[in-house]
Every structure is written in C-alpha cells, then in structure tokens.
Specification:
heterodimer, A: alpha+beta, BirA Bifunctional Protein, domain 2, 2 domains, rod-shaped, B: alpha+beta, Phenylalanyl-tRNA Synthetase, Chain B, domain 3, seven-stranded mixed sheet, elongated
Amino acid sequence: MSDTETLKADLTRRIAEAGDLAALEAVRLEALGKTGAIPALLKTLGSLSPEARREQGPALNALRDEIAAALASRREALEDADLEARLAREAVDLSLPPPPRRRGAVHPTMQVMDEMIAIFAEMGFALAEGPDIEDDFHNFTALNFPPRHPAREMHDTFFLKPGPDGERKLLRTHTSPVQVRSMQRTNAPPPAPWIASGREPPIRIISPGRTYRCDSDATHTPMFHQIEGLVIDRDIHMGHLKWTLGEFVRRFFELDSVVTRFRPHHFPFTEPSAEMDVQCEVKDGEVRIGQGQEWSEIVGCGMVHPKVLENCGLDPDVWQGFAFGFGVDRLGRLKYGMPDLREMFASDVRWLAHYGFSAFSAPNPATGLS
Amino acid sequence: MKFTLSWLKEHLDTTASLEEVVAAMTMAGLEVEHVADPATKLAAFSAARIVEAVQHPNADRLRVCQVETKDGMKEIVCGAPNARAGLVTIYAPIGTYIPGTGITLEPRPVRGVVSNGMLCSAAELELSEESDGILELEAGLAVGAPAVQALGLEAVIDFEVTPNRPDWLGVAGIARDLAAAGLGRLITPPAVPAPGAFPCPITIRLTAPEACPAFAGRLIRGVKNGPSPDWLQRRLKAIGLRSISALVDVTNLLSYDRCRPLHVYDAGKLTGGFVEARLGREGESFVALDGKTYAVGADMCVIADASGPLGLGGVMGGESTGCSEATTDVFIESAWFDPLRTAQTGRDTGILSDAQYRFARGVDPESLIDGIERATALILELCGGEASEVAFAGEAPARRAPIPFDPAYVKRLSGLDLPESRVFAILEALGFRREGQSVQAPSWRRDVEGRADLVEEVARIAGFDALPATALPPMDRPAGGVLTPRQGRIRTARRALAALGYAETLTFSFIARRTAELFGGGAESLVLANPIAADLDCMRPSILPALAQALARNADRGFPGGALFEIGPVFEGDAPADQRTLIVAALDPRQPRRWDGQTPDPIFALKSDLLTLLAEIGAPVDSLQVNQSGLPGWWRTGRAAQLSLGRATVASFGELHPRTLKALDVDHPVLAFEIALEAIPEPKRKAARTKPAVKLSPLMPLSRDFAFVVPISVAASDVARAAQSAERSLIAQARVFDVYEGPGVETGFKSVAVETVLQPKERTLTDAEIEAVGQKIVTAVAKATGARLRG
C-alpha cells in the first residue's frame, strides 16, 4: 500500500469516526488545513521528477477532492443529527389545551328577529323604530282604543308615575305606536333621528322592538319582543295579507308544506281582524310544524281600521292596507323549542350557549336562515 | 263563556256534531278554548242494577253484589254503605280507568272474593269533590244506558268572547252566528208577554240618565220561592254556576241565555215605594250580595230606595233586599247601564260579576222589555204568582244611523268576490237590515260603526278560507338594502360581539330604583306606578348593573368567568328623545388557571375587543381620545377610561368600582365596556362605492426604536401619538413596546419605549435623512410630553 493510500484510509476512518462538528473540524485541519497532510504532500510535488509529478499530481488532487467530499458529507450528516436532536429537545405536548377562548352566541330571540327581518326585507319592508316609553295617544287612542274602554284592560299596561302636568306615560304594550308614527305626518321633525316619522303612502314597514305587559308566567314575561308589519297603499286588500303571512310562514319555518289557518278575531285597530294558526304537534318535547292536529296561534292581523287611518291623517277612502303583529319570543319558541319563556331573560350562560346561535349564522337568502 | 250543546239546540235547529259546532265557531271568530266532553272520559261507564247484595264473608264493611250489567250478571265487591238490592247505579267493567282515583281496574280478589268490576260514586267519576256512597239513579233507567245519558251529562264548550261581541255572552247570540254560518236554523222562541193584572206599585226614578238611561220594572206578587227544578239546576251547574233559588236562577239563566242581566228584589224589603237609579253620594256604602261592604263613589251608578243605596246598578245587588225562601213579592229590574261607567265601577270596586261583565261590554239596549217578559214567564211557571204591568222609565240609547254601504267594498277591502245577493243574505242572517243604499245594524251590535265592520261580518261568515292569497305588488325600495346605517351597525355589533366570545343576553328594561340611582338614574319620572315586582320598578339608566348581577348569578351557580353582552335601550327621561341605545359587554375576569403560567391583564383583552368592535361598526378608531379622569363613580378609579370624539363620549371601558359591585351584591371583579351607539357619527354617504386607489410602496419599511423618560402621569399613548405626528408623511406607525419603572429611571418617572416604522415613498432614505427624522421624533415627543431620550 502506498503512503497516499494509507493516508486516505486513515483520514477516511477518522472522518467517519468524528462524533461531532468540532472533531470533524480537527480532522479537516489535519487533512486539508494550511499545515495539513495533503497540502504538505502537494508541496512536495515541485521537488519530484516530471514523470513522478505526472503520476503523483492527479493522485494527490483526487485524494484532496475525495477527502473534501467525505468531510462535507460527514458535516451534513452531523448537522442533520444536531438539528434532529434539537428538534427532539424542543418537542411540546400538543395535547395541552390552548389559551382559553370564550365562545360567544347570539340570543335566540335576536336570531329570530334577524331571520324575520331578512324575510320581510326581501318583500320590501323597511325597519321603523320608536320609543319604548310612549304616550296614551300613540299606544291607545290613535289605535282606536277609546279612553276607559275594556279593550285596554286586555293589555295589562305598565304606567309610569304621572308627571307634573298629570300626563301618565306608559310602556308600549305593542309596537303599533310605531305604525302610528310612520303614518302620521306632522310638520315637526321626529324627536330623534332614529324614531320613525310620518310619510306619504305607499308604506311598507316592519317595527321590531321591546314591548311590555304586567304579566308573568311560563308563557308570559313582563317584557317581550314584537315585530309588527304595516302595508298601506291604494288597493291593498286582505288577500295580500293572507299571501304575505303564508309566504312568511313558509320561509320562516323553512318548510314547503306548512298548513295554516286564517280565522276571524277582534282587535280595536283592525277591521276585519284575523289570527293565523299553524298546524303543529308536540312530540317528545319537540314542536313539529306542519304535522299533527294541533293549531298554534302565531300572528294577529287585519285591515287597518278606517278610524286609525283617520287618526293618522290618512283618508280611508283613498288609502287602505293591512297590519300584523308577531310575538318574536313565542315564534322563536315554536321554531327552536325553548320550553319556558322566562328563561329567555334569565342570562344563564348555559342556556345561552345551548339555545344561542353562532356569530356566523346570520340569515342569508343563499344559505337559509340559521 | 261556557255553554252546552243542548242549550245551544234550544236556539239552533241543527244536526251538527260537537266537533262540527266547535269547528264552525272557531272559523266564525268564536275562539274555542276548551271542550270538556264527559262522553270521552266516561265512555266505559254505564247504568247497572244491583240484584242481590250480601255481606262479604271476610269483611264487615264490604258487600258482595250480583249486578245486572251491559256485560251480563257480574259479581262485584262493593264497600259503599248504600249498596243494596234494587239500586240502579253506575258500573265500570274491568280495564276501565277511574278518573277520580287514577286507577285502572284489574280483576283482583278483595279479601278472597274476586270483584268483576266496580260500582261508582260521584267522586270516582269526578262529578263532585266527595261522596258518601255509590250513585243512586232513577229506578226506571235501562241497564246498559251510557253514564253520560244516565247522569244527564253533556259536553261544555268554553270560548273566548272578544270585547266587541257582548251578544256572544248569550247562547242565543252564539246560535245566531252559527245559523248565519250555515250550521242550522235559528229557532229562538219569541218572548210571550204576560198581561199585567195591576199597575206596578213601585215607582222608578231615573236621576242620572248618563249612567242609567232606561229601566223597566215589574212586581210579581204571591210567588213561592224555592229550589229550582232539576233541568234549571243542571243547566247552571253544567257551566259552573251555583243554583241559589228559583228567582235568582231565572236571572242567571237569562244572563247566559240572552245576555240580558236582570236583578230581583224582595219587594217586601223595599222602602218608600220607589227605586231610584242615581249617582252615588259621598259617604254612602252598602252590603252587597257577596256579603262585603262597599263604599260608593260619586261616579258610580247606585240603585237606591228611601233607605239609601241598595246596590250598584249593573254590578251587584245588595244583601238587604235580596230574595230568599221567604220572599212572596218580587220586583224585577231590567235596565241598561252605561258600559264605560260600569267598567270603571268594576275596576274601582273589584267586583267582576256576570252582570258587570256584560253591561261593561254593552248589553242590547232594546232587550229591556223582552228580558222582563221572559223572566216573568219563567217566574210564573216556577214560582207562581201574579204579575203587575211593566213600568218603564227613561229611554234606551238610540241605534246608530244606518251605514252607507256599497257591496263592491267587500271585494275592495277583503279581496273576496261574492255576489251581491250573498253579501246581503249574510248581513240579514246576522240581523242587519238593508235600507236603500245603507245598512242598519241590529240593536245588539253596537260595535258596528262603519262599512269596514260590515265587510268583516260578510268575510267572517263567508269564511276566511275563501279569501284569495294575492301576492304583494312589487314596490320601489332602496336598492342597497332596507336597514338604516344605525340599524346595520346594531346587526354588525351583535355578530361581532358573538364572534369575540360574548354571549348575548336580554335583560329587562326596568331595574330596582336604588340600583338605577347607583348608575345616575332613578328620576321620579322613570318610576313605574305598577311594577311587576318591587325590584323592577324603574326604567334603567344603564345596562351595566343587570349584566354584572347576571355574571354573579352564574358564578353563584358554579359558572364563573362568563362574558355577556346586550344591545338595548336606556332611558335618561320619559320623552322619546331621551331613549338611547347602548352596546354593552361585561365579563367576569376570573379565568381558568393556565398551564403556561401566563396571566395577562384581562383589561387589555377587553380594550382590544372594544377597539375591534368599534372598527367593525365604522367608528373612527384612530381619532378617539383616551381619557382616564372624570369618569362616573361606578367605574373603578385608575382602571377605567373613556374614548371620546371631540366632546362626545363614544365609549367607556374598564373595571367597575368595588363599592358599586358591593352595592349590587357582586363579590367578584367585573370588567365592562359600553358604546353609545348614537354618539358614533354616521358614515358619509358617498356618490360611488369605489374605494380610493391603494398605493403600495415597493420600498422596504424600516423600524427605529426610541426610549423616552417621562413623568409617570404621562399617558403612554401621548408619547406614541407625538412620535407618530412628528413626520406624518414618513412615519407609518408608532407603537409602545415597553414600559419600565425602577432602578435606572429616577423615582416619579418611567421609561416608555416606542418602535416607529418609517415607510419611504419615493426612494430609499439616506442615513442622514433617517437621522433627521429621528431628531424630529425626539423633539416632538419632548415638546408634547416633556420627555427626554433615555441615556
């Protein structure tokens, strides 16, 4: 074996044996460093005969390249091992919980409100609003409840203490006062920019909001939510009302076959007046709409009473139309099954998480309501 | 209002079944609430005869009976003391559910003798509360006759009478509507006038025609009062009325049969030979038939005689002149009382009698004579006696003028296309009369005021099923959606808050007044006169207390750490403009322990949520000023701030004051923010939806850090703001990344380190330019805050 071969074998073995990058660097310096073995041999080439140089030169160069390659390869292997070792050291237990993030929810009544608004918006209904503290005129008198009339008693009204002028304000018992505000044209601007003001028909609005009656049990809460609707034009008749509510019910319950029943009723502010029921059954605590033999009342409605139109300054010989009123909480209960209406206002986080809706379930005509 | 089918059939000739009657009522506007049909409950029970009853071999109190039943002879063990041979009673076969005991019969030996059925008491059939033996029926009853027939039971229909239809408070009125709806023929028998044998000796005086404009009276002398006959007792009992005596029962019968309340006086107890309908006088009182003493108000209609007030007209009679078994002369009152006054008297006295209910809603003013004649006929039949002539005083309210009516209006208002003949046939069936181009409403329909009412009558009887469903015509509407920007913001805020981890809740708009006072409210004008509970008596000035208390309630139930929000109204006064909409979020900051040991101050997560939300609803977040002083007292000193825009406070956030929380009985910290929705300026309406072109610089931004030393009282945001405004065209951002107090910084001062980002626009900056900007920043911050660069 020549010296060159011995050197190569020795270096190759030591490269393979280098356990870390420092040991490998030591081998590199010994082999290829300025004073290393291979440069030393290369320096001796000048003193050789041309023949010997021709023979030795390429062999030494080849040795240098081979050792350089072996060093690089070994370095790469050692670096890889180092990296893997570091990564292994830095491993984390991914079964650990992330920092807590609360889950929010939209209240079911507000979800239902948004669903209803979406359906009526497509039919061209705008949103009108009014104050929760109302006066007698807007809540009763304009709506054809004569003073002292027994019909007022059906409303279990909350009254505020009388003011210095003796006027007794009240909490609106329905959102119908907003209808009055939407029809009644006064020369004054509305009390606040968000409060509805009267306009020339055609009118097509819904008025959602809080309403109040002094009543409390499993199916009544002293505060609840209504969405009322009002359509006024020259030729709007009860058939339009029937279609509008039928269409609404189909869209709201997201069922093609909801059986409804339209039957006469009485409200002071509509004439003729009606209520609409949907057919349903309660099975194992689930309300199934469109099945069974039971009827559940969902909306009161009718043609706006001529006196109401007159009270709002509209000529009943020219204008006519319909109005309807839904109890939003009750409607939500019918669709989503909350058993006790009082829970709706109890702020129990478990209830809210169970019956609430995701932020991303905003009603939308493409994906459906919820 | 309750009635039975047999009662209805005295007015309506019909073959309709119970189900058909109920369905027709509902579709005609008489909303049936409940049908109690004993035929369903008692279907398995029937009449049976005890043939033999012998002592039970093993029990003193039991008898073994051989009973002839619809199923043949049965041996039945019975414990009733009245079980005896020959008795006809009610039998239940094995397998029957006994409603009174809730037990289903099984063939089970009783002390060794198998009982093959049961003989029943009234209590076991739920016919009475208790009974002391099995039922004793007429001996002539056929064995096997169904129990409902043997006992004379029938279905009771209960329905809601809308306030416009007092005529439905009489069975005759119900029959009229059902006949019009095609359910049968109206056969109400006419009243047969009884001739008067002598002039009525009691004078009627009307001195308050506004309260009682008309009054008919008649004396019947020589009557014999006593229990009513079975048919009358049963009729009243079926609808839940107590039988009192024949004279009183007759008035109750007519109240329910004809909606004609009457009153009977024991004429022997009247003094002065007159009755007077007048207004009450100060200081008067009387003992009513319910045994209670009532003070009489000056607005109330009183019936009086020479002794003073006897009763309240149309509301309740008095004890002193009530009829009893000893009554021999009876004076019948058939009057008309003003509805509104009667309603008010009912409210003021708390008396809710059948008469008051009817007069308050409006009794037929033309029914006075008819009613007194019907009462006379019944009293003469049941109690004998001799009737005087009818005395009549005053004048009943006139009918309304006929209503001009074009039958085409039916189609215009309802969409129903009916022939004219059908329109008038319906109206006539309901008692309306056609008079030329007008229609006269019947006297009992005082609710009918105009042509829309006539359309309702026609549509109701024709049936709402027949109404067309006509699509709403398209209408001009805003192309961009129907919500106003404000309404859109509420919608966005709701979804954003839910996404940020808050659960939406809805709390009452009224809270306890003392709580309202803690939050700057509680004004007298916002206090409820009739709250549903003492701690819900005042319109709220803030949503914060309700949310704080809700968090505490959840914590008390074992669920701390909640986060809630509500979007709703608060009230600064009772005028419409005093109502504001707030967006409020609150959280209990006690979070679960974390394995990584990190405990960031939750107030900054809250601030982040607030700023995210404000940005989502389009508030100018970058222009908001943070102000930590002068906040209302319910915010915790040093850990709460306001965000304002000019003078308007847009939002407040931070921790609630421990003192306030203690007053609310909340024993943990509460962090919250509230946004005054109406204080956020509305976005400017733009002509186009195009967004301004974006300029994206190809040049690298570079960052430079500065550490300033400022007095502790200087807000860190002021340092950053001053740094950013030093060269607006170049400095894209200035952000505080470190705040330090302690060794190296003198007492009373802190170090605030700010990272600035310089964004070159046209060309790369030279070192000299960067140096110059740095100088500007130092100068600007020094000028604004008194800061110096940290050495």
